[in-house]
């Protein structure tokens, strides 16, 4: 399984990359600090899953999910966030 990680916190991004790359069957296809970088990479990178932080600078994780889903509808998208606001996690 090829995974893209999108997380703006550098230490958390490195930690997720290290942790997940050590799992059998997971290949890190890319690790990006912004939604814009991740979207640009999707044009030439194949991934099965994208792990997205909702609290990204500039373009939000929710916007990224919508755009990435339209660009790669076959790709699964997982969210990770520290937000306890249900409205930001479960937007219609």
Write up this protein.
The protein is an alpha/beta fold. The chain has one domain (2-89): Rossmann fold. Helices cover 38% and strands 23% of the residues. It has 4 helices and 4 strands. It has helices at 10-21, 35-42, 61-71, 86-89; strands at residues 2-6, 27-32, 49-53, 76-80. Strands 2-1-3-4 form a 4-stranded parallel sheet, sandwiched between helices. Strand 1 (2-6), helix 1 and strand 2 (27-32) form a beta-alpha-beta unit. Helix 2 (35-42) packs parallel to helix 3 (61-71). The chain is globular and about 30 Å long. The protein starts with a strand and ends with a helix. The model has no long low-confidence stretch (mean pLDDT 90).
How would you briefly describe this protein structure?
By secondary structure, this protein is of the alpha/beta class.
List the helices and strands and how they pair.
Layout lengths: L1 E5 L3 H12 L5 E6 L2 H8 L6 E5 L7 H11 L4 E5 L5 H4 L3
Parallel strand pairs: 1-2, 1-3, 3-4
Keyword list:
92 residues; 4 helices; Rossmann fold; alpha/beta; 4-stranded parallel β-sheet; single chain
State Rg.
12 Å
CATH architecture: 3-Layer(aba) Sandwich
- The shape, in one word, is globular
Label the structural class.
alpha/beta
Alpha-carbon distance between the two ends: 28 Å
Average pLDDT rating: 90
Number of strands: 4
- For the largest beta sheet, what order do the strands appear in spatially? 2-1-3-4
CATH superfamily: Response regulator
Q: Biggest β-sheet: count, sense, barrel? A: 4 strands, parallel
What is the percentage of strand-forming residues?
Answer: 15-25%
Number of individual domains: 1
């Amino acid at each position: 399984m090829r995974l893209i990680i999108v997380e703006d916190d550098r230490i958390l991004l490195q930690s997720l990359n290290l942790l997940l790359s050590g799992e059998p069957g997971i290949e890190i296809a890319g690790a990006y600090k912004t939604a814009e970088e991740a979207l640009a990479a999707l044009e030439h990178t194949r991934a099965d899953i994208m792990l997205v932080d909702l609290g990204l600078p500039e373009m939000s994780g929710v916007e990224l999910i919508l755009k990435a889903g339209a660009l790669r509808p076959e790709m699964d998208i997982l969210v990770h966030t520290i937000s306890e606001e249900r409205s930001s996690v479960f937007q219609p």
